[in-house]
Amino acid sequence: MKKLLTILGAVTLTATAGLSVVACGQKKDDAKLPPISNELIKEFQDELNKLWNDVYNQNAEKFVRKIGEEGDQENYQLFNLNYLNSQYEHIPGTRTFDLHEDKSNAEKFVYDLNKLFPKNQFADKIQKTLATGKNAVKYRNLYMGSPDSTLGDFKIAQDKPFNVIKTEYKENQEQEKLYSIEATVAKNMYHKDSEGQKSVFQTVEIPLNIIIGKDGVAITLVEKIARNLPKNLFSEKGSQFGTSRMKRSDANFKTYDDDLELGLSNQVNSNEFKNTIIKEIESINNNESQYNIKFGPKISEEKQISITSTMLRNDNKKQVETKRMFDLQRNPLANSLILKKADTKVLKEEDASVMLQEVIKDLDQNIDEHENDLNTFLDLYLDKNVNRESIVNKTYSFGNFRLNNVFINIEDNEVSLELPTMVIPWTYRNDSYSDLDKKDSWLVSLYNALNIVNKKVMAVNTNYFTERENVSRGMFAISKEALSEIRNSFSIEWNEILERTEKDKNSSYSKRVYNPKWPEIFKVRDNITWVDLARSGKNYITDECNFDFSSFSAKIETVLGIDKSLGEVGNHSTTGASLTSYGSKYPKENWRNQTSYAIGNGQTIVNASSSYIFNIGLINFRLFIPIDQGKGFDILSAATDDNWSGKQYFDLSNDRKLFSPTEAEFDWNASNPYVSDSYNWWSSINATFFQLR
Q1: Among 94, 68, 65, residue whose Cα is nearest residue 79
Q2: Cα–Cα–Cα angle for 125, 128, 131, nearest 5°?
Q3: How many whole angstroms separate alpha carbon 66 and alpha carbon 355?
Q4: Is residue 692 over pLDDT 70?
């Protein structure tokens, strides 16, 4: 007799419905605003941080001031040569002065910051990104209503250096004095909190190093470097980064990395990039001055790298939703790629690419917006006569990074001067496919990733219907790695579960219940329960060398009760959130002698619907599993904007019997081919999803 175990895991929850009542005569607009989530507040604050970064970067050319014979004519208070000379000129040598010692210094510098980073620039960006467009609706309960109400004062970090550094150079018996002001700066901004009250938010702190001096050899070279290095570095050997170069500095870098900032930081801090900086400064200097360049430990931190745009236009790094696939039997992406059986021929890459572009929401629109922003970005750094077509076609992401900790010794002086903070443009492209543009390269990588997911996570079980009497074979065959994820989720060792079941093998009927380790694998939120096949982040899928994305997760999710997006799809058997093992000496009771994950064992009947959901990088795929005897099909068909059947491409399918015993038992022309009664072949897939061997 077989020594087998049946695992039936699911959750029964009581779903409650909310009812909103508005009294007669009360205007709908007077109703209390819905609660503001912490997640939405965080997204709004991210927008404010981005505003501050953008305005900072926009004004980087002001960070060096060379003063001529006429003297300092600007009305800066601290960043003013006349003032600095009056305070420090009489003190000999190169010295550092702590500005924290006198509170009036902070007041003077805040005045200067408002001149360096004008209020009107903040106001323009607030108007464009928060007060109008799609964000105006999204953040209507958070936005203060005007730029003036949103903007607060600049803040100088009290726990970080706030110094004036006076550097003296001697040349031909003449002294040249340069003053550097170093500080770490943030800006207070305001938004409404969850109660609608005004709340202050301090933006991210940004290091700032600015230099001022009278016209001379040193300040002239510094100004030339600060003015020209950002544009000169913007080349294929400089800050136009490609996948191949990124992987030279980090072997673990993924082509489409969720943490691109980290990869860029590693590349910028590499010796290869530092040597490029040295060569570009040599070109800028053109043998006019003698100098030496040195670098600090890091010339750009990960947090100093900003992404202006990616091809997917996903600024907040939230999941990019695909349309939900639901007609799996006639959908080639499902039956010949994502869920294809092991013996089914894989869908061609070019055919898959056409369909993926339909499934991923607003892909072409996002690319158009990305390219428009990229062209505006390139206007700042490329001459008009430079052919930019290749850059636009290839660039997947672009932005800026701040360059710090670069020191220069001029002439024979031993004194080192830190160059001013410079904002360097960068672009990133996938150069693995030299003949493809950014979209096609990305689609090839996505197609390859889907192949790996099919082989290494879950596929439709080839033998399910050929061994129908063995119900626990299940709809899906899942990988040994996914099985391991589930086995390790329980509060006792898997071997112990097997041993206990072994002891019950001669009983007429035995049942044991085991609790999972919350919230490792089985999870519950409201009326939703799911089982993970791969936990989010780096895992056994991202370890695959040909998987070009840095994160992956996969789960089967079941909604018990009414799914808001589907309504009632039909009643099914469910049980509690536990692992239940069954043993029986009677071989005819096959369902009690196998190893499976199921929705339930028939003790309780509730409305239920299930989906296979997985994330490749930032792309969230959703496939509705047709276990509801066709009741959800019509609902999904009607909501065409968010759902995708793929049946218009079913002639490309390499499998015409994904969930049916034979092709003849599936009506390919039916408006709803999934309608069935509980006594035919379709009902046999209602309970069991996959085996736990």
Answers
A1: 65
A2: 110
A3: 58
A4: no
Structure tokens at 115: 């001149």
The rounded distance, in Å, linking the Cα atoms of 422 and 60 is 6
Tokens of 360: 């991923």
Confidence class for position 415, pLDDT limits 50, 70, 90: confident
How far from 383 is each of 231, 232, 285, 524, 607, CA to CA, in Å? 10, 11, 21, 56, 63
Q: Give the span between the Cα atoms of 240 and 427, in whole angstroms.
A: 5
- SS3 (DSSP) at 427: strand
Q: Find the length of the chain.
A: 693
**Could you give the maximum distance between any two Cα atoms of the chain, in Å?**
105
> In a 10 Å sphere around its CB, with 0-12 CB exposed, 13-18 middle and 19+ buried, how is residue 123 labelled?
middle
Q: Please choose, from the candidates 486, 621, 618, the residue with its C-alpha nearest in 3D space to the C-alpha of residue 551.
A: 618
Q: DSSP code of 348?
A: P
Which among 171, 172, 206, 202 is positioned nearest to 187, based on CA atoms?
Answer: 202
How far apart (Å, rounded) are the C-alpha atoms in residues 573 and 526? 19
Phi, psi dihedral angles at 672 (to 5 degrees)? -140, 90
Arithmetic mean of pLDDT, 172-182: 86
Q: Which two tokens stand for residue 259?
A: 């943490």
Instruction: Say if residues 149 and 190 touch (Cβ distance below 8 Å).
Output: yes
With beta carbons less than 8 A apart as the criterion, state whether 40 and 191 touch. Answer: no
Name beta bridge partners: 529.
524, 558
Q: How many CB atoms lie within 10 A of CB 255?
A: 23
Mean per-residue pLDDT over the chain, rounded: 83
Question: What pairing do the DSSP bridges indicate for beta strands 552-560 and 604-616?
Answer: antiparallel
What's the predicted TM-score (pTM) here?
A: 0.83
Q: What pLDDT does 685 receive?
A: 44
In whole angstroms, give the CA distance from residue 447 to residue 450: 5
Residue carrying the six token digits 């390139």 = 378
Q: Which residue has the tokens 């205007």?
A: 27
Which residue in the block uniquely carries the two structure tokens 């100004």? 223
Q: 156: pLDDT confidence band, cut at 50, 70 and 90?
A: very high
The residue ranking higher by pLDDT, 603 or 389, is 389
pLDDT tens-place string over residues 301-316: 999 999 999 998 766 5
H or E segment and range at residue 429: strand 422-429
Please identify which residue in the block is written with the tokens 């619907």: 609
Pairing of strands 198-202, 6-8: unpaired
Report the distance separating Cα 494 and Cα 498, nearest Å. Answer: 6
**164, pLDDT greater than 70:** yes
First to last CA, the chain: 17
User: Which secondary structure element, helix H or strand E, spans residue 483, and what is its range?
Assistant: helix 480-487
Q: Which residue has the higher pLDDT, 354 or 678?
A: 354
Residues 312-349 as b or e (16 or more Cβ within 10 Å = b): bbbeeeeebebbbbbbbbbbbbbbbbbbbbeebeebee
Strands (E), 339-430: 395-403, 406-410, 417-418, 422-429
Beta strands 324-325 and 305-310, pairing class: unpaired
